[in-house]
Amino acid sequence: MDKPVLPHPVQLHEVVLEKINCRRIGNFSPKASYRMNFAVRTKSISKTEAYGYLCLKVFFDGQPNVFSMEIIVRGKFIDENATNRSMLKRFAERQSLPLLLPWAREAVSSLTRRMGYPPLLIPLIDVSATLRTKEV
């Protein structure tokens, strides 16, 4: 059975890679283990617009230290019918990680390949558990 698509009142209108900082440090090793940190922040532009920012850092704790990378993805959330600035900002705080993560995943994969390494695929994450267990 076909069902109509019902758009959410808040829409993601533009996504940009605001910052890319990566540095090749050593040669690739399949034994190298990396960690990732996520951070989310928001900025209210008006009662109908807010920016959501996803910062992703990839780094190696021990040897071999292969590369370092920091990426910031910015998305513009718009709710034409919003009446409360803080509600839109809270929406952006909750939704920036799941909605902007695909752009960060693509950037990490593409950049690692261009650095001469196999593409690094950021694993899918349990967004709800991540937001509950750590400061994002």
Detailed description of the structure:
Belongs to the SecB family. Pfam families: SecB (PF02556). This is Preprotein translocase subunit SecB. It comes from Pelotomaculum schinkii. With 136 residues, the protein is an alpha+beta fold. The chain has helices at 85-114, 127-133; strands at residues 11-24, 34-44, 49-60, 67-78. The chain has one domain (11-123): Bacterial Protein-export protein SecB (Roll). It is 27% helix and 36% strand. The chain has a four-stranded antiparallel sheet with strand order 1-4-3-2. The relative contact order is 0.22. The mean pLDDT is 90.
Largest sheet features = 4 strands, antiparallel
CATH architecture classification name: Roll
Distance between the ends? 39 Å
- Strand order across the largest sheet: 1-4-3-2
Percentage of β-strand residues: 35-45%
The low-confidence runs, each spanning 5 or more residues with pLDDT under 50, are none
Report the total helices: 2
Run of helices and strands: EEEEHH
Q: Quick one: CATH class?
A: Alpha Beta
Helix vs. strand class:
alpha+beta
Mean pLDDT: 90
The tally of structural domains comes to 1
What name does CATH use for the topology?
Bacterial Protein-export protein SecB
Shape: elongated
Family: Belongs to the SecB family.
Protein name: Preprotein translocase subunit SecB
GO molecular function, one term: unfolded protein binding
Organism: Pelotomaculum schinkii
